[in-house]
Amino acid sequence: MDDFDMLSAPQGSTGNGVGADEDPAAAFLAQQESEIAGIENDEGFSILDSGEVPSSLSQDPDGGALNGDLHGESNGPSDVYVAISNADRLQAEPESLRKWREEQQERLEQLDANSRKQEAEWKENAKLELEEWHTRQNEQLEKTKVNNRYTTLFEQLKSIRGLVSASCCLIRKALESTWLLFCTASCILAQVQRENLKIIHTTQVHLLTSREASKAVCPSNQAI
């Protein structure tokens, strides 16, 4: 409504130095050019340096080119509406950028929340796996201790068996040696007895022989 009021206002001196005899549409367009130039400078466009009109200003909202260059001649009220539309669109771009940033912020917050949740799940799973690992290690350690005890006992039994076997072997050898000595002593004793019997028998024979000889030599001794 302000634009139409400006167009319908009485001709006179304007605030930007335009005379009363000039076209109000041209004056309005010049004012819009000044505002658009300020917006372009705020948005980082370098129109004054390059001399080129950005695509956002060289096309209308429907994608078509403007009827005339903003820095050239105007084509009447249609250029005014195009300039107003472009100005509104330039003002709407920061809003879309703000919305995009908000969406990105929400997305980052969601990703951060998911990351923290996943990290907590990983920590919980790692804790459970560590507890299970410790449990398995303790069970394996107990089994190893039992196996070691059985192995040690078996080795001790084998050692005792070896000692018993060695002792039995020594005893058997000792008994064999004792039996051999006994047999040897018995043989020697029997031999001695036989020798003694021979000596006794020989002595008796000598005595009888001597007595018979004595009788033959001295008959008187026979009477006696």
TrEMBL record:
Location relative to the cell: Cytoplasmic vesicle membrane; Membrane, Coated pit
A Pfam family that the UniProt record links to this protein: Clathrin_lg_ch
Residue numbers spanned by region Disordered: 1-79
Top-rank taxon, per record: Eukaryota
GO CC entries: clathrin coat of coated pit; clathrin coat of trans-Golgi network vesicle; postsynaptic endocytic zone cytoplasmic component; synaptic vesicle membrane
The keyword NADP is assigned to this record: no
Membrane topology designation: Peripheral membrane protein
Keywords associated with the record: Coated pit, Cytoplasmic vesicle, Membrane
GO biological process: clathrin-dependent endocytosis; intracellular protein transport
Free-text function comment from the UniProt entry: Clathrin is the major protein of the polyhedral coat of coated pits and vesicles.
Name under which the protein is recorded: Clathrin light chain
Source species: Cyprinus carpio carpio
